[in-house]
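Everyone, carefully examine this protein record:
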Amino acid sequence: MGRHSLPDSSEPDGAGARPGVRRRTVVLATALVLALAAGAVVVLRSELLPFGKPCGGDSVRLDVVASPDIAPALDDVADQARHDEARTDGKCLDVKVTARSGAEVADSLAQRPAHSEFQVWIPDSTLWADRVDAASGTPLTTSETIAASPLALGAVPTLAEKLGWPKKTYGWAAMAKAADDGTLPLGVADPARSATGLLALSRIDAAYRKEGTDSDADTAQSRTADAAKVLHRHLADDDEKLAATLPRGASEAETAAPHRNQAVLLSEQAAFAHNRAASGPGLELFYPQDGTAQLDYPYTLVDENQLDADKSRAASRFMTLLATPKGQQVLRAHGFRAGHGRADEKVTRAAGGRAPQPYTQDAASLPSAEEIQALLGVWTVTVENARLTTVVDASSSMALAVPGSGGRSRMSLARDALLRALATFTPDDEIGLWKFATLLDGDRDYLELSPTARLGGRDSGSAGHRDGLASALRALTPVPGGGTGLYDTTLAAYREARSSYAEGKFNAVVVVTDGADDDAHSIGLDGLLEQMKKLTDPGRPIPLIALALGPEADKSALDRMVAPTGGSAHEVQDPSQIDEVIQQAIVAAGSTEPS
């Protein structure tokens, strides 16, 4: 394919640590063991075999599960080992490689006890092993990385030329902006199931945070949420399906087809594989100028303490074969860099990279487990549909004028902000409305004005739910003489949300209040907290989001109320900003665990 030729040689591979990469703390102990058998020593980092007789006797079976992109290369090394009659402790080495995505394996291993059918796991990113660790799942022991591949923006030649390839470079924030304004319709794999997609989102988030200051953390988070919405426009379930969205040839029917992506975020190795298989012009790669992320392929033992000596030595032997010059040559032939991540000129050119694109720069460190959790929260609440029950204070103090608003009341400004928020939700989102004040409905302090239902559905009769909800919002007025029945109302709304929980959606209760509870007959704060703790279920999270309007609101009580649910409380000095605060609170709630 011309310049996208296959590399046949490369620089020698060093054994130094890859710069800028966070290492996991445990080192593969068996990789350092000198296995003694019948007086013979297996030298782990050489190609010497302890026995000279041909394979044909006993063998050791090693089951390896690996990311689909690297599995073919591992198969080649395993086949070569059989051809070369490689041995481990005098027995033939028989390696079987199974391709499975990192997300699938991580979900399985996070459940403990988990019966594992394999002894070695090679995911495309340490992120997956970290996920298992965070869940206290199956014990894992991870060594150095055996290969690496940086992320880049791959574009078909016509679009790459318009974007200024190869001289023009882009940062992550600039890519997100170009995708938002339509200049760059950008395909990406689902961050919830793809390390590539998640790492790309993390670099966009890091770019936004670097542009701002500590005081702009909420703004940066909102910008990340906006970027998530943009990425969701051209989302593929996984990396394999993302690659399938690229044009299959140079014909206009392919390059202009609306279901084909002209640009995608992918690994250098994925671009290499695409260019090698493409019948027409391959991808050109833009490497982010502000630091790329990198897939790191850690060699990981699964529940090492349960392995017998033969399996443990076989795992060490196979890792050794991958690290030899011959093993590394096989990995390069499949488009991977060595484990230290140093650029390989022939691999990069075959993938579509060219100077002055910054393909030789060090990769950024992996995000922490806490940062990943936060990002997944942002992604989940941004792209999944929501189910929100909104509970609005209708006590008499909501009629007070807000300074600087031209005489408008707290209720008036809050009402308009909630109507703006309503306009941002989709037909599949479920939104409901309650109001509360003391003794509002007989002995009850609360009243449901509109059920929590699909905005695209219909209420009783023929009215659409969105229109009915909007009418209910416009009709909100303070109750003369009404007090703040906060605690009983919150408990009732939370019980209702719990009983009608919607799987696959972001469920939450949003309470807007301008005062402290003053219902002398209410359950009280301690009683409310006791009940909320009983109602919360980590497997079915329903964060409580509380918005405190004005100086009379009891922010300290709200902080205690939301804590058991993983929600948050926010002071809102200007009720007209309620819609913005709700969006930020929803994003934050998606990344917070109940306490």
